[in-house]
Amino acid sequence: MAKNKISLLWKISIGFIFGIIFGFLIGPVVPNTPILNNYVMPFIDLIGKIFLRLLMMLIVPLVFSSLVAGAASVGDIHKLGRIGIKTLALYLITTAVAIVIGLAFGNIIQPGVGMNIPAGLQANAREAKPFLDVILDIFPTNPIASMVNANMLQIIIFALFFGIACIMAGERGKKISEFFENVAEVMYSVTHMVMSFAPYGVFALISITAAKFGVSILAPFAKVILGVFLGCIIHALIIYSGMVVLFCKKSPLWFFKGIQEAAITSFVTRSSSGTLPVTLANVRENLGVSEGVSSFVLPLGATINMDGTALYQGVCALFVAQAFNIPLTLEMQIGIVATATLASIGTAGVPGAGLIMLTMVLTSVGLPIEGIALVAGIDVILDAARTCLNVTGDTAVCAVVAVSEGEILKS
User: Reduced to 3 states, what is the DSSP secondary structure of residue 408?
Assistant: First the structure.
């Protein structure tokens, strides 16, 4: 019976495919069908939102408990610092490379040429915070409030301090760290419960998206979508595969097969943070990364590693510039690389956060912030690709760091 049991991955994939087909089929008839419009679609939308809420429910307790346990389990403050430096360096380097790839595709594909949009287009985007304020906001004044508000950067900072303090406190700290290890294990069990609902949540989310936007939304901005998707694929196949082969001495197929559930979940939910429970499970169970490394690297990556979002900034910045007939000099494009790399540190791993980050990038090089309105219409499609790349990058860096520390447990 066990051999004939359908895996969760196949169930999610089936839900994904049927969701797209269902959405494309009923999308055109929804507005003229009261039953579909008033009952069926709201019910399907409710299922998708419940799934997202269940994932979001896991984030704060899972991140805090796993980070405290992960930091404390290292047992050596110097080793923790070494892992942290490696992780941050890899995240920032891969993010900068991603932006360069995005700018390259923007220059090659020329997505906005010919649109000739006059200035004055209105948009409803929130203004991004100054970068110094982003840095200041990393540090919490009230960790309880940070947890209530799900401020992930502040939670991570407090969890790291707490985990390091457990090491410094000796035997008493060890008792506390063991408690959080138990909490983390319970949260992993809760994660498995939530993921059993994933095929239905995936079907609901993707069918609503397909029904709402349809195939027609792809046509006017096909070049932007092509640039972002191709850029994400190339970044994954060249940069991440190269890292896995060079540092882990493993086949890219081993890597991508091991993290496929996390990749699909992130593509559908469009949330790095929401996918974190699945990412943790895939990295530990399929790649064999130790709990100490995965509990530190992945929650950090879900917050600050935004390769897909950064690549998207490069393509979209050029798209906006070309649409408004504003030339971007080499210096301005270098400024985009620097700004987007640093801005990625403060970008939340939730659906749509890339649009907020894009406002900072556009402002930094003097492009009209009204251009956000152009991208917003297809952002849900772009968000799926960039989030998938974000999560894939988290797992690649996690594997590399684990190998460098000798903490890959199995093939």
Answer: strand
- Do residues 410 and 288 touch, judged by C-beta distance below 8 A? yes
The closest of 373, 368, 382, 377 to 313, measured between CA atoms, is: 382
pLDDT for 129 beyond 70:
no
| 243 vs 245: CA distance, rounded Å | 6
User: How far is the C-alpha of 408 from the C-alpha of 411, rounded, in Å?
Assistant: 8
pLDDT tier at 124 (50, 70, 90 boundaries)?
A: very low
Q: Which residue is listed with tokens 């979002």? A: 309
Residue 35: pLDDT band with limits 50, 70, 90? confident
DSSP H helical ranges for 27-151: 34-35, 41-74, 77-109, 131-136, 143-148
| Coarse DSSP helix, strand, coil percentages of the chain, rounded to the nearest 5 percent | 80, 0, 20
Residue 127 has pLDDT above 80, yes or no: no
What is the token pair recorded at 163?
């985990």
Q: How many angstroms from the chain centroid is the CA of residue 112?
A: 26
